[in-house]
Amino acid sequence: MSPAAERHQRGPSVTAARTSTAAPETDLDLFSTEVLLDPFPHYARLRDMGPVVYLTEYDLYGLFRYEQVRAALVDWETFSSAQGIAMNPTANELSADSILSVDPPRQRALRKVFDDALRPKHVRRVAGDIEHLADDLVDSLVRRGEFDGVRDFACKLPVEIVMDLIGFPRDEHREELLEWALGAFNFMGPPGERQESTFPDVQALMQYLVTEATPDRLLPGSFGQIVWEAADRGEITGNEALMAMSAYACAGLDTTIAGVASTLWLLALNPDQWRAVRQDPQLVPGTFLEGVRLETPLQFFSRVTTRDVEIDGVTIPRGARVVHSYGSANRDERRYPDPDRFDAHRNPVDTVGFGVGVHTCPGRALASMEAHALFGALARRATTIELAGEPTRSPNNITRGLDRLPVRVS
Ligand code: HEM
């Protein structure tokens, strides 16, 4: 058994604080396969250790409680994204021109390009297409009875509608894009085998963006064209445009797939909650939020402190990298009563699952529209949802989602 696995079996050890104002330390390997596959009991222990912990394995400070995660995300001047939000220097260097890796005021200029495309009023113009596709899809799946909740249900709208919206050419690379993006998320983790081994995915994604998804090949009227037009007007640089396309590919597809598939899984595990949704379809939006809260498609990102900062008596020094766990914050018992329970009535509009502050997700309205259309159609047609086999998932340094979800509906 590896030292990390042994430590995992023992659980995190808490040592005395190094000085009176130092954070409690743990040698828990937060990014080991075991922890990534079932992080929630570990998060609970980390939250109990204090408002800030120090992860010795990775030389990272960690925020795991809701209040502290939210406060750090809002205070971008102290918790800066400008040195990257990944947990290794190579990924941070490669993404230096990404919107995710800059602070205001530059971030605001880049953000305008995304907001122009993703504003709810613009997204609503595809609402009809989304509703239609969701209806037809659910109709055929209910007739089939058994299907894969990931590939057959959750992937369809991102691949067929969102990839069109972004403007990616309709070619054989669409399926590969999802894999490359998952690899790119893995590559954002702390240095290690999982992180290093996914570099080829990052290269393949960048190669595709440079040679295949070129401005002249993007679909007309797409988000991608808005990005490159901004570059032509000199509002953003060519490299910023490229990184914007990368952000669309990474942030806009697997996240929604993970959120939708996880919500379907939770509904299959909680038939009483599905009955409630069917009886009152107004619960659909809150049910999707509850799925995002509990399973949180993006579990972590990080920031770097621009000054010594004190949080409830614990000092994080200037220049420290601080990982914040959206996934743990969303299960904080200090914020959500009975946090591990899936409750279709909870309606957690305050979830940090879509981020908070200046970097809050600009794609939230689009992702929600897709999910509402899918679960709304399902509520009209499926009386029951049950598992038809064991779901599978792969560990990822950043994302949490399912690979396969065999379900049966009637
Ligand atoms: C369930 C689906 C989704 C989830 C859970 C999600 C989650 C997030 C989170 C947590 C952030 C904040 C990053 C930070 O704090 O640094 C974020 C940012 C972002 N998301 Fe989403 N997202 C989803 C869907 C989408 C979609 C559909 C798009 C676009 C098509 C998108 C595009 C972006 C972009 C471009 C950013 C960076 C914004 C900035 O840095 O200012 N996301 N997302």
Automatic annotation (TrEMBL):
Keywords associated with the record: Heme, Iron, Metal-binding, Monooxygenase, Oxidoreductase
Single Gene Ontology MF annotation: oxidoreductase activity, acting on paired donors, with incorporation or reduction of molecular oxygen
Highest taxon listed in the record's lineage: Bacteria
InterPro entries linked to this entry: Cyt_P450 (IPR001128), Cyt_P450_B (IPR002397), Cyt_P450_CS (IPR017972), Cyt_P450_sf (IPR036396)
Region (Disordered): 1-22
Stretch forming the signal peptide: none
Keyword Manganese listed: no
Family: Belongs to the cytochrome P450 family.
Protein name per UniProt: Cytochrome P-450 hydroxylase
Organism: Streptomyces refuineus subsp. thermotolerans
Taxonomic classification: Bacteria, Bacillati, Actinomycetota, Actinomycetes, Kitasatosporales
